[in-house]
Write a structure and sequence with these properties.
This protein is α/β, with parallel strands linked by helices and 321 residues long. The chain is built from 13 helices and nine strands. An eight-stranded parallel barrel has the order 1-2-4-5-6-7-8-9, surrounded by seven helices. Strand 2 and strand 3 form a beta hairpin. The longest helix has 10 residues. It is globular and about 50 Å long.
Length: 321
């Protein structure tokens, strides 16, 4: 079933004006209707731009990846409005989750069930998109918001000129459907597809050899196994897991021109809350290039001091400093 894009909603998001960045990050957490409208964007025009952006160089600009879009109080996970909120404070890669309804519409949803994140019930793959459209999203504290469940199509169109996406494909979703949506929306430069196994990465690369992949590579043995897939290194961002890796391992990936993504979501984020956000600086100094985090605003502020004065990557950013 092909759906009609909510152009009016997307157009309204584009019309948001520009203002000044907040001095107090608590505004992001406590004031969902804040008047802050500054935006920090990553802009790529082509797949060549994207490959160049993700090719590691010593002057790279460290980044955050907003896990499930970067939810905060008042901003639910996997919502376009939540993505926009994060971009008020920092340029970011947006990680999102894709599920499929009973009538084969791709929507943004992490769980198999609707109960935790919406005011609806039932399994996503057992309800229609018409039913999904009647629902509203709840934030992580269970507060009902006025935001709707977006489609993957809407998110892909939104991302152009704003952010790069990493797309986590749920088990019930055929890879072919996601690739088709990326191509139909002309979003090849903006969407990297996530795979957790080498067979999945190989299948995705066969289906869409032009697309970037985020592939789990956590040790030297997995570097060797990845090379056996035949996927070129310039199509890969390496997710190194949710535990910090040795600096030498990160450097081995850098030597291949590969960006590393460290998953600070979960234990490492909790450690930063308890021990201080300077931990994020240590992760980057140890070779992490992108921090996949549940605290993108706080982590981005902490690592801002690590931005090089001059970078070959600066041309892709707006308001990077």
């Amino acid at each position: 079933m092909k759906i009609r894009t909510n152009w009016l909603g997307i157009f309204a998001l584009i019309l948001l004006g520009c203002g000044s960045s907040p001095s107090d990050q608590s505004e992001a957490v406590n004031q969902p209707n804040s008047s802050i409208t500054e935006r920090h964007h990553i802009k790529v025009e082509s797949l060549n731009d994207t490959r160049n952006f993700y090719t590691w160089t010593s002057d790279r600009i460290p980044l955050v990846s907003a896990h499930r879009g970067g939810p905060y109080p008042g901003f639910p996970e996997n919502a376009i409005e939540t993505f926009e909120n994060v971009l008020k404070y920092t340029p970011a890669i947006i990680e999102l989750d894709v599920a499929m309804t009973q009538d084969s519409v791709l929507v943004l949803m992490h769980d198999d069930d609707l109960d935790r994140t919406t005011n609806g019930t039932g399994k996503v793959n057992e309800v229609t998109y018409d039913y999904i459209q009647t629902l509203f999203l709840e934030d992580n504290e269970g507060k009902l918001t006025e935001f709707k469940v977006p489609t993957l199509e809407e998110a892909l169109i939104w991302s152009k000129g704003k952010a790069l996406l990493t797309v986590d494909i749920k088990r019930s979703v055929p890879f072919e459907k996601v690739v088709e949506e990326v191509r139909e929306t002309g979003s090849e430069a903006h969407a990297a597809l996530i795979s957790y196994t080498f067979p999945a990465a190989k299948k995705l690369n066969i289906l869409a050899p032009e697309l970037m992949l985020s592939v789990t590579i956590r040790n030297e043995e997995e570097i060797r196994r990845f090379e056996e897939t035949g996927i070129p290194w310039d199509r890969v961002i390496a997710f190194t897991g949710v535990a910090e890796r040795p600096k030498s391992f990160n450097e081995a990936l850098h030597e291949k021109g590969v960006f590393t993504i460290l998953g600070t979501l979960g234990n490492l984020d909790r450690s930063a809350v308890a021990r201080g956000d300077e931990m994020y600086v240590n992760f980057v100094n140890n070779g992490a290039d992108i921090l996949a985090t549940d605290r993108p605003i706080e982590a981005a502020k902490a690592i801002q001091t690590l931005h090089p004065e001059k970078s070959s990557k600066s041309k892709y950013f707006t308001h990077v400093d």
